[in-house]
Amino acid sequence: MNDRAPPSAGRSPSGTKGCVTDDSFLRLAGIHKSFGKFEALKNIALDVARGELMVFLGPSGCGKTTLLRIIAGLETQDTGTIRQDGRDISRLPAIRRDYGIVFQSYALFPNLTIFANVAYGLVNRRQARDTIGKRVAELLNLVGLPDAGRKYPGQLSGGQQQRIALARALATAPGLLLLDEPLSALDALERVRLRGEIRALQQRLGVTTVMVTHDQEEALSMADRIVVMHTGEIEQVGTPREIYEAPATPFVADFVGKINVLPAVAEGGGQFRVGAVSLAVARPDIAAGTAVKLYLRPEEIELNAADNMNGNTLGARIAKVEFLGAFCMVGLTLDAGGAPALVANVPRHDVDVGRMAAGQAVRVSLPPDALRVLG
Question: Would the pTM of this model clear 0.85, i.e. be above it?
């Protein structure tokens, strides 16, 4: 396992194209790609540290898969450069680049045994038979399928086939591993199981990895850093915690996780007017009269809160309680006029103890340090 930490993440402000550092294994600079009049990628700049697992996250059409394919040499950028481990690979064909790739569709050869599938790249490199046998056995053991060599892909489950695809991608010991939505074809339980296995394997091998997904939970649970993309641009680069707790743009706040949005006007001195309510926010540097939006995660709303001095404890009424397993989603209507409805995530135990039900009056606290100001 490579124990070197990824570079300082930082947060890219709205409008920037990426995050570049001095310590990188993979460096993208000025990447632009158009398909006719459609701009798929706009001046992308990004560094991936050695041994890091970086996830490209975004909705369909945001450019994340196009960017991965450009790194792989399966698409060619219109402008820009790509350097891998100090080597300029910007115009090299895919066959001359040092990577292994796993697709969402497994892409195994159905007429070849599992052994032959994993050995495919080694055979093409004319490795000795004994060397191939030892390497395939090592990889099958690594992915937890030591006895699968004589089977065919059709005899394995989807999760097992994806493990074999991963073993094949790693067979030639590539410097870079590319994962193109590798879990999207699996059922929910298998996705959770396999994402943990992939992350553990990646950390164990220390292989630099770039993964594409539209699944927020996958990104948050697997990544060292996340690149949030939208309309061909990078909105923010940061650790999962930075992306979730300190979104840099309205798009990131809306796209990653659930969030309450409160249209507001700054009153100066850290006070913001939301309808008939004045809320204190730990952000005093906004000029009075500026229209903004306040963002608040559902789990940060405190129900049945005691009155306090921050001015953010308000009367409300429960509109609905929706059971979601370990927690409940509680819809709230503030007593003060003009304020939008809110949603709070409340542990099931607290809902039971408080006997929370539609129509019940409650006191809610909106902590000033949890309210984030974005334009």
Answer: yes
